[in-house]
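Q: Hi! First time doing this. I have a protein sequence and I read that you can turn it into a structure. Is that right? Here it is:
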Amino acid sequence: MQQVISDESIAVDPSSKILKKLITIIAVAMSLYHMYVAGFGPPEAVIFRGTHLMFALALVFLLYPSKAEGGLIPRSYDMLILALGLAAIAHIFIDYENFTNRIIYIDELTKADVFYSFVMVIVVLEGTRRVIGWALPITAILFVMYAAFFTQIKLPVLLEQLYLSTEGIFGSTLGVSASYVMLFVIFGAFMEKSGTGQLFMDFAMALTGRSAGGPGKVAVVSSSLFGTVSGSAVANVMVDGPITIPLMKRTGFRPPFAAAVESVASTGGQLMPPVMGAAAFVMAEFLSVPYAQVALWAVIPALLYYASVFFAVHFEAKRHGLGGVPESELPKFGQVMMQRGHLFIPILIILIGLFMGFSAPLCALVAAISCLPVALARKLTRQGITWMTVINALEEGARNALSVAMACACAGIVIGCVTITGLGIVFTQVVIELANNSLFLALLLTAVAGIILGMGMPTTPAYIVMVSLLIPAIIKLGVEVPAAHMFALYFAILSAITPPVALAVFAAASLAKANMWESGFAAMRAAAPAYIVPFMFVYEPSLLLIFKDDTSYLTVFWSVVTAMIGVIALAGGFFGWLVGYATTLHRVLLFVAAVCLIKPGIITDTIGFGLLAFVAITQWYQNKKTATV
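A: Yes, that's right. Below is the predicted 3D structure, encoded as structure tokens:
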């Protein structure tokens, strides 16, 4: 039985060969349709988004049956729901002239409009539940109930908002899934099929494998690289984990810490340009900026995130005397680049294309098309690549996009309810009142809300809900708009490693055969500095490369340097090591130094560097004294 890894659930392929072929045909057609649109331009928004949702619904109800069966015909219940869902979308297509010409909220709904409105909402909720679980559908239901029973909004108006407008199910979030996410997921599938995963692993092994705690650093580097083409924390764990986790355990890392490192490193892939997680494309849509701009904002936060994890591994290894991988087992860096380095070309295509101003979907399309020809260019990397590789990549791309497509459609229900009821304004007022006009308290409330929301749903819908309800409050308190959105995105992502529902940790713990709770708390400890990073760029927007009138390149450079050193100091405080063993006093001083360096200002920077120098010199002297005894 084949399995398709998504962040929340597993798709089941039926045993029937005919049904398998039908699924392959639909999935391949879905990928080819979106590739065609990226190359030649999309149809009208609702037609494009509706077609995207039709493909997604067809695959969801075939791949996620209400009960796994081996027969030719799936349960009639599934087929009935699918037929109704497709009919609801077809109703808009068939009557599209009326859909575009009617005056919304004024022209009365027909009986067919009312019927299909109900059908569309129910089918989207059920399809989302099957792919990513109950959390997001229940959230959407609560918002619908609030709009229907606790406001003055009439039911026909609510139905129009959700079904017959571009403010609900067929809104901008579904448009992001269709336009951006689908192409980058296809690109990721082609990269995987071309053998790039092996390149990432060998590259990381050659770069960091021999140093202290080498296998842990390999996990950090390889997961960050794989994250650039994946954007899924759990998928990263399941690809890298089977190699890195046993390697870490073999060299002395405790199983919970090995699981923690892999899960934290894999989770950061959603922050890592050039290809971030799906939520980054939604952010670009919300802020009406090119995706390349969002990727630029994310560069420094991503580096700070991975620096914190990298040094957490380094300090843990030094404290416990853990070595690296034996030299004989490591690939040579030059050899890796000579044999497989050309597989980096598709990623370079995306980077260069975005830099030159081409659209993100077009860059992803060209990069995806280039993957297999690039792999075929060398004898070592062309092995095993056939025409079936293309089919498999197209099919896998469509399958991997399902969770995002359904999450975006369901999130459209939430956004539609928030927009029409004005709930966002109410939430803004509540947050400001609870925080008593304190920006720090408002940020703290937003961070906690992001983690709680992200525990039950994927990053994208968690971020969307935060944008609708919480982000306006911190913007009103003076936070730069990009910083506010990045803050929400960061904490929605961190929920994947925050107990009690930490999906990436759960996946890694199963591979490490470690206790889930121990692994979860170890992950929080390993990522502890990363929980501080969002506060850093809120108070110092230059870390997002945002230039105000009085901001110079020197200011930005200095902010990045002090932030990086502050993150390292914080990791040292948590793991009890800097250049030597850290006593309790050293740990306290490292924490204080980190806070001072993280907070911008000449006085705080001076204090931070002074404390850091004192700890480093003291430990160096202690090391020298111990060595001479």
